[in-house]
Amino acid sequence: MTDIQPQPDMIGGVPTPPLAVLPRPERLFRMRAERFEFLAQTATLAPYLTFLAALCRVQAGLAAALPAVAPVDSAVVDRARTAAMPPIDRDALVDDPLLGATLDALLAEARAIDMPAPARLALDALQAATTEDRRWLIGNVLDDSIPADSAAPHLFVAAAVQVHLARLAATLDAGRLVPIRTGVCPCCGGKPAASVVTGVMGAEGARYAACAGCQTLWNEVRLTCLACGTTKGIGFRAVEDAATGNTGAQIKAETCDGCGSWVKQMDQHKNPTLDPVADDVASLGLDALMKGEKWRRAGFDPFLIGY
Amino acid sequence: MNIDLSRRGFLKLAGAGVAATSLGALGFGEAEAAELAHVRDFKLVATTETRNTCPYCSVACGIIIYAKPGDDGKRRVTHIEGDADHPVNRGTLCPKGAALKDFVNAENRLTQPMIRKPGATAFEPITWEDALDRIARALKDDRDANFLQTNEAGVPVNRWTTTGFLAASATTNETAYLTYKVVRSMGIVGFDNQARV
């Protein structure tokens, strides 16, 4: 006998899409590195993409090599469920020694990456940083708010925070998460980097927001602003190739006239290799064109500060 | 920004202090500039995705209609798919619904009221005003002539059996309620919904 429960909604082939898809950290960062490497083959941004590919390789290595993190306490998960709050408490992580160790390990590993002098300078400064400065940096990243005048050191810190948050999120049970609010990650309360329209079986055509912190994908109703939650005044802007008139863009800007912001939406059902972070950076051209429009970017990506 | 002294020292060491993009701050400014120059040849096009309800039957499947400006600048429907967020159909569509785009863009689609007068062989355009007047007149005449207040036994029935009414499917509850009240209040018995067409 098995304990498989009947799922009558599977009969018509139209199951309910899951609320959240938790990250598998090692695999996720490795595939992201591969995507960065692939994109670097043809992009004008190749030097930056190659650098980020190497950084993602470091993230993947750490995700596999670091000692396992303790799962989020079951009582904490229960309390979070009752209060519709994220089970991962970001505030408590600022002084978390495990996060600090992850940052140390990442900084050490990142030394081997080939990078320009300004990046190396930021890396050196981070390794020499005082506890207070480290708390400031980690705090900014955990707040999803990075000062525009110090994007370089925050990038390395954000990479370490991503690894730690993803490893924590991986210990959760997706079935015990509850939706919090539009545009808020049900695992860690973070902002989305972008959203993807998925083509995976059982959720075809459903939209998932990609957490910029813990890398969880969570279901969001399409044609809804991820910044303010309205469904009115939603439009799209896509890059058109003036020479060919081709508008088959797989990455579009979802704009909201309500709050004046926009977030990228990627058609993963047309191209399953699209990665919400790697392709966010690689589609910088869309950001550049959107800068001339009336909306401001609401997708949070520590690799793309300033857009 | 309010930065304390220790942090100012750190920012100096980290080469920070000037607002820049991630690429500029890390020393990839050259690649960034090349990319920005590259995208100048491209432009943004406004596309829309709009929720609606399939008009074919009373299942009322949710659909998403994609449109973008055509060569004349007018928005054209480019694609229609099932709405994955809709509880009724979860993104699926039947063959009729899947062919909706061709129905929207059909050349022989009815875009204005038409009339085929008694004895005529072809339809001709008519204004909404005239059309509604004619319909109201015909309804009134037919009801005056054929409305039954009582049956043979003298029991009040208030029925009008010589006119039928066919309603559409993509209506709101409110529209459906009003339609029902209007039609049944006039005594119409033959009342069906597009649902079964």
Structure description:
Chain A has 307 residues and is α+β, with helices and mostly antiparallel strands. Chain A folds into two domains: 20-169, Alpha-Beta Complex (FdhE-like fold); 180-297, FdhE-like fold, CATH 3.90.1670. Chain A contains ten helices and eight strands. In chain A, strands 1, 2, 3, 4, 5, 6, 7 and 8 form an eight-stranded mixed β-sheet that branches. The mean pLDDT of chain A is 94. Chain B is an alpha+beta fold. Chain B contains seven helices and eight strands; from the N terminus they run αααβββααββαββαβ. The mean pLDDT of chain B is 90. At the A-B interface, helix 2, helix 6, helix 7, helix 8 and strand 5 of A face helix 1, helix 2, helix 3 and strand 1 of B. Strand 5 of chain A pairs antiparallel with strand 1 (42-53) of chain B.
The CATH superfamily of the largest domain in chain A appears as FdhE-like domain
Task: Note the run of SSEs of chain A as H and E.
Answer: EHHHHHHHHEEEEEEHHE
- Counted by DSSP, the helix tally of chain A is 10
The overall average pLDDT of chain A, rounded, is 94
Please report the two chains with the greatest interface, counting residues with C-beta closer than 8 angstroms to the partner's C-beta.
A-B, 71 and 51 residues
Helix content of chain B: 25-40%
Which structural category do the helix and sheet elements of chain A fall into? alpha+beta
| CATH topology descriptor of the largest domain in chain A | FdhE-like fold
Cα-based radius of gyration of chain A, to the nearest Å: 19 Å
The CATH architecture assignment of the largest domain in chain A turns out to be Alpha-Beta Complex
**Quaternary status:** heterodimer
**Can you tell me the overall shape of chain B?**
elongated
What is the number of strand segments of chain A? Answer: 8
How is the main sheet of chain B built?
A: 3 strands, antiparallel
Family (chain A): Belongs to the FdhE family.
Main location (chain A): cytoplasm
Function (chain A): Necessary for formate dehydrogenase activity.
GO molecular function (chain A): ferric iron binding
